[in-house]
Each structure stands twice: as structure tokens, then as C-alpha cells.
Predict the 3D structure of the following.
Amino acid sequence: MSTPTTVRTRIAPSPTGYLHLGTARTALFSWAYARHYGGQFILRIEDTDVARSTQDAVSQILAALRWLELDYDEGPIYQMQRLDRYREVIAGMLAAGTAYKCYCTPEELDAMRDAQKARGEKTHYDRRWRPEPGKVLPSAPEGVAPVVRLRNPVDGTVSWDDLVKGPITIANREIDDLIMVRPDGVPTYNFCVVVDDWDMGITHVFRGDEHVNNTPWQINIFNALGAPLPLFGHVPIILGDDGLKLSKRRGAVGVMDYAERGYLPEAMLNYLSRLGWSHGDEELFSREQMVQWFDGQHLSKSPAQWDPAKLDWVNAHYIKRTDDQTLAGLVAAQLARRGIAAEPDAAMQRMCALYKDRCTTTVELADWLAMYFADVAPSADDLATHVTDAARPALPTLRSKLAAIEWSKPAIGTAVKETLGAHGLKMPQLAHAVRVLVCGRAQTPSLDAVLELFTKETVLARLPSA
Ligand code: GLU
């Protein structure tokens, strides 16, 4: 195996569902770290849980990484395509005596645990199949497929200096002889991860806190293989705004849910990066700045809090800064989901320019733009409140003035003013009524700017002629 000289990080999702926000954040940290140090970022698909892994989940993970533009230099590498390699490593460990076969049946293991519990002991594997000098092993029973276990050291400790949590030490006597290959011959997570991280020359492993208990085993496997150890950084979990672990039951946890809900990838990246990492007081920064700043320092030990209001604030910031052409493309896609066909043309781009400052998501932007492409249905309340007896007679006047003009914002403004004069009305009296009828809502930006973006025909069709 080559000795890596550059930083090599990886993300290793299991394709059992969408890309979880927590995994996306780990991917972001791993990616940014590799980019900061001019190294490589690798995508590995951990699909050895055959029953739960699906191709659809792989596609979703790839789509989410593409959406976030977390580009990888190698991969996707599929574990199920590496089974021969795992077998080879296992054979080597069996030959070297760092692994052994265990023929315990599930029933025997249950009985072992029950007996330990009855004696008030912590349950553990009693190493009955572990070869020792001078120990006579039972003879292998017929018809029982063995598992392969790691011959974990019994003395001493496993230690590492976690990139996030600092120094961690575990006594080896706390650790069982890990099952590395199941009876069906498929190797287990902790074993495959080590072989992969070794073969792929991974130098830095960032992953979720939930794996911290696996790391002692993995280090012992690295040591058994004589492989160089990567550095490990266990990133704290993300808590929902209710203080509980973020989960599907309590809101969206899939990255692509946020794409659907009108969040921008740059906003997601910016927001995710601040969950467990900081650079001074900086809250809003570009992908490039993050790469420049992400040197592995200032990673927080405490759980991060998911804050939907902050995400909205960050997204609103990026919506304002996104060019109208890009926004129009996104809004057209949002409208298409509602069955509204609309081209992201120059006209739509001007609509985006008019409304984007008041929107948090492209879904909200689509809420605004829908009135230009589909019928509106003013509520009975709005009609009663705003289309008043005072305003009603002015509406046909405005309509005929608009019918006569060359369609432009100043000409619309003049037609509105003349109508106010002719009927002795104040601007809000007329403007609210027109808004409700044409836009389906009473509050909008300035009337002439809003109307100009409709076709004249649409406005005339929505105003009464008598
Ligand atoms: N497949 C594991 C997960 O999705 C990867 C853990 C690791 O990065 O080692 O949690």
C-alpha cells in the first residue's frame, strides 16, 4: 500500500435512503478539508447491508452531492464490488492469527448472555473459539457456518487524538472480539471501513458521533493489518429545534427535500457549515471562503442546533444575490411542479427581480409569480374588504384607460393617477381593489411595477368592464 502524502478524505454513505443532513454536513467538512489542503475527496458507497441498500438511494445520494456541488475526485466506489479484496484480507488475518473462526450458534450466544446476566456480569463474547497457546478448541460442529472474529488485544488501551473531541482512550478489556464476517460470508461495516480506508489511502476520517464507539475496533484492525492509521474526527450530532435528535418524524432531514422547498445549494452549504464549525463571527460566506478557512480548527464538541429560522435568513440572503436568470430557471421548475407551464424568459427574469427581495425561498417566489401564468382566485374576504363601493365604479374607468395605452410602467402609472382624479379616490382605495382582482392578494409591490409584468390582455380580463 502506498503511503499517502496528501490529505485524502472520504464520505461513505450507506444507500438506505436519501442523503441525511448530518451526512451532508460530514461530506461538506470532508470535502472542504481536502480542498483546503489541496488533497482529494472520495465517495464510497457502503452497500454491504444488501437488504436495505437500493439503487434508488444511490441515485438520490449522487443527486444531492451534485446539487451541493461537493465534487469528488474518486468514486463512487461500491463495497459490494470489493468482496474479493475483503476475502483476501480476511484470509491473511486468519493465516496471521489476528482473526479466527467462531462457530457459536445464535442460540449458544443467547445462552452465554443469559448466563452472564444471571451472574450480574456485563454481557460479552467469552472468546470460547479464540485460539490461545495451549488451549484446546472444540471441534467445529457440522453444518454451522462460522463467523470470523477479530482477535482483539485483551490488555492495554486504544487511544487516539480525535480531531473534534480531543484525546480518547478505551481499555481493550471493554471491547469484544468483533465479528468481521457474518455467517453468510458478507463482511461487516467495521471491517470493510478499515480495508477501504487503508486501500484508499484515507488520511482523515470525519464522521458522525454515532461512530465513536466503532473507532477502537477499527484502530485495532488497522493495527492487526499493520496499516497506517488515519486521523479521526467525530462530529457531534445535529439536534432539532426541539432539542431532540433531528429525525424524519420531526421534519425534513433529506438534503433534496430542501431543494424542493426552494432552498439554494449555496445557502444550504453555508448554513450546514456553521453546524459545528465556526470562523470568528462569520455567518455568511462563500464556498471559496469556507475552503480557505476550513483547516480542521474550531470544530465544536457540543451538539449543533438545527435552526429553521436561521436557515431561512441565510437562504433569503442568497436569493437576493442570485442573478435573475438563475432564479427564473428555479422558479419555472417550481411552477412546473404545480402544473403551471412558464418559460424562464426575460419577462420572468424581470418578475424575479421585482419580488426576490421579499422572498425566503424560490417556493415563495413561485407563489408570487404564479399570478402571471395562472388564474387567480381572490378570497371572499379580500373581495369584501378591498373591492369597496367607493372603488368599484373606478375599475371600468381604469380598465378602458389601460386598454388605450401603450403597455409600460409610466403609462400604467398615469392611467392609475387619472382614474384616481376622475373618481376622487386615494391611491390605496383603488390599488387594493385592483390588486385583489388582478393579483388575487391585497399586498404587492408598487402597482404600476406589478401590472407592467402582466400582459395587457390578462389585466383587462381580470378587471370589470362595467
Ligand atoms: N456508512 C457509514 C454511515 O453512513 C459510514 C461511517 C464512516 O464514515 O465510517 O454512517
Q: What stands out?
A: The chain has four domains: 8-77+187-239, 84-158+170-181, 255-372, 380-462. The first strand starts at residue 8 and ends at 11. The first helix runs from residue 21 to 36.
